[in-house]
Design goal:
- This is DUF1501 domain-containing protein.
- Pfam families: DUF1501.
- Helix 7 packs antiparallel against helix 8.
- The protein has a single domain, classed as Alkaline Phosphatase, subunit A.
- The radius of gyration is 21 Å and the shape is globular.
- By secondary structure, the chain is an alpha/beta fold.
- 28% of the residues lie in helices and 13% in strands.
Amino acid sequence: MNDCCEEFGQVSRRGLLRGAAGVLGVGAATSVFGATFMQTSYAATQSADNVLVLLSLRGAADGLSLVVPHADPAYYAARPHIAIPSDKLLAKDGFFGLHPSMKAMLPLWNAGKVAAVHATGLPVANRSHFSAMEELEDADPGSTARVGWLNRLIGQDTYTHPLEGIGLGMSVPITALYGPEPTVTTTSVDDLEVSGADDGTGRRTTSMHTMWSSAPGVLGKGARSALTAVADFTPVRKTAEAPWNGAVYSDDDLGRALHAAARTIKGDVGAQVIAVDHEDGWDMHVGLGTLEWGRMIDNAAALATSISGFFTDLGSQASKVTLVTISEFGRRVKENANYGLDHGHGNVMFIVGAGVKGGYYGTWPGLQNSLDADLAVTTDYRSVLSEIVVKRLGASSAAVFPGFAPETVGAVLSA
């Protein structure tokens, strides 16, 4: 839990972020891994050709620490205490370099499987965690319909398998998944089951079938979908609990969530979209720190370790999985008096895995050494996401991002 930003503290407790959800398979139940939530959307029980993993870094990660613009002199002038020395950076080119704690991702980077797109974000600055998250995940400015972009993406699929509509636990999908299409969440891949059906007799499941088999309306449809989905999730529950191929995850909520996501993909039940929310400590108004101490060291290392472990764990399945990171906004260019950074605008997005053309991308706007200066946005975040959903998932950009004309980013190749 963050102690430096009251608004984000309220959001991360789901008091505002999630909103009302559907009932019994119409919405989604939320998997809780401490501060991390895994939500999975299914297209069918057949094998998915390609899988999108959306990793949200809740709290506004500082992209200027994760991918450092070492050739911009304003970066060092604005951050006299917390700037990362140029000679310590990883994967360094003539302008950018990765935070030194992200060394676990170097094998993926060197293999050309990691792209970093800088100066991305909302077209207009929004410094409210709650409002920015909603705007980012609706991705449909001006619309009165409360439908997230991932829900619209799911709606492009012609399949109607009930695993699109199971709700167990907290029925509170993230905004990106919210809408008329069914989604499913679970506290863990081993605990996706009918509540109370643990006595080995099957009576609870039988009674549920009897009660809901001919029930009309939304509740009846949702209940039937939930029962079928639980049964069809069995291949995931049967996957080995231990990571494959010697994979190592960070020992935290993010690592556990990405491990669960890997098991879901290896279970091969047709998952096409997996959203993982990581809310632990990215809102660094205080104590972002240096290379000797501070919160960014641990967060950057955990992020890199878990992403690397995820793709190692997937083995041959990695060839169909593309992961993208996103955060609601970036942070100010200039450090504050508490070795931290206040709310800003532009940020960096990582794209990792299948179909990625590795390297640094984006149009650099230049930085200013001013207390109120932001990293300006030169690439709308929807252009990055659009390139993935069109080239990897074969979806319509116009349907997923209504009214938006994406620009070419160049970091993603067609499937």
